[in-house]
Amino acid sequence: MISDLPLVPLLAVFAVAAAAVVLASIRATRLADIIADRTQIGEALAGGLILGGATSLAGVVVSVNAALSGDASFAFSNAVGGIAAQTLFLAIADLLHKKANLEHAAAEPANLFQAVMLIILLSLPICAMAGPDIGFVGVHPVSILLFLAYLAGVRASSTVSEQPMWRPVKTDATREDEPEDDDEKGRSARGPALRFAGLVAIMGVGGWVISQVGATFIDRFSLSSSLVGALITAVVTSLPELVTTLVAVRRGALQLAVGGIIGGNTFDTLFLVASDIAYRDGSIYHAVDITDLYWLGTGLMMTAVLLAGLILRQRKGPARIGIESVLLIAIYATALVVEVTR
């Protein structure tokens, strides 16, 4: 078993699983863009629904496995820690996009709406944690509400993408959401979709291995579940989002890059729903501690800052990036210091 491996082989297994997840995600980015062009659903929506959900699969496997083993803090912190880490990745991508502030160039109503949707979804677990400890068959009512709110938000995002009631002001730095190759229009998306599904399976298996190694770290080295969940497994399983974001920015698919992060984060809130179902000792929201709530608040704050940046659309800021990217880095760095010094 993985838990019985010596340290060096254990780290090697961890590295191989992480590499498999990352490499699969690189190919998935290209396929998601092709699917977006052939189905004409738009880069922002494809990034949020197709790419965001696929690259989040490894993370949900980690959280569900942790919940099944009875470690609520590990499951919860992996979910909310991943949201914070993935939002940070947009600031990193902003550093690499030299032409203009990334949030300025990737103007898209669907991304704005998904950011608002994410804030709403992140607020629900806070209400559950502060409310009464109730449940039906071990599932808190907020988990059901969270799932329904996600479905409603996805449907509304599609409407915003297809029939926007307003559009951002175009500037010379605005990147239009246009297919890279007109030949893609009208072609079947079946082939790319099947290959995409195969890559998703690889990411899922990689997530399972990472969850087993993370649990071993907690037991063998007496590390806190919050530390391992928020800063080790969450970051590692979020690496696909970093890779896909950087690849998308390099290819000029800026809406796909921003939409992939925000959409992936909205999907990540469903980790909590799956974890609450898998956790059999009551409501998972009342089994976690203040450390996990801190990471949830960090993710909520970073999302609000990102939304403000998308609305402000600052062309240039300090250090050649937008002020929202500077704030995102500062917020995450503060959370990191608080976690390791706790």
UniProtKB/TrEMBL annotation:
Keyword vocabulary terms for this entry: Membrane, Transmembrane, Transmembrane helix
Cell compartments where the protein resides: Membrane
TM spans (from-to): 6-24, 45-68, 74-92, 112-131, 137-157, 193-215, 227-249, 256-274, 294-312, 319-338
Cell division recorded as keyword: no
GO biological process entries: transmembrane transport
Highest rank taxon of the organism: Bacteria
Region (Disordered): 165-189
Gene3D superfamilies with a match to the protein in the record: NCX, central ion-binding region
Start and end residues of each Sodium/calcium exchanger membrane region domain: 11-124, 197-338
Topology with respect to the bilayer: Multi-pass membrane protein
GO cellular component term of the entry, any: membrane
Keyword Transmembrane applies: yes
Protein name: Sodium:calcium antiporter
Biological classification of the source: Bacteria, Pseudomonadati, Pseudomonadota, Alphaproteobacteria, Rhodobacterales
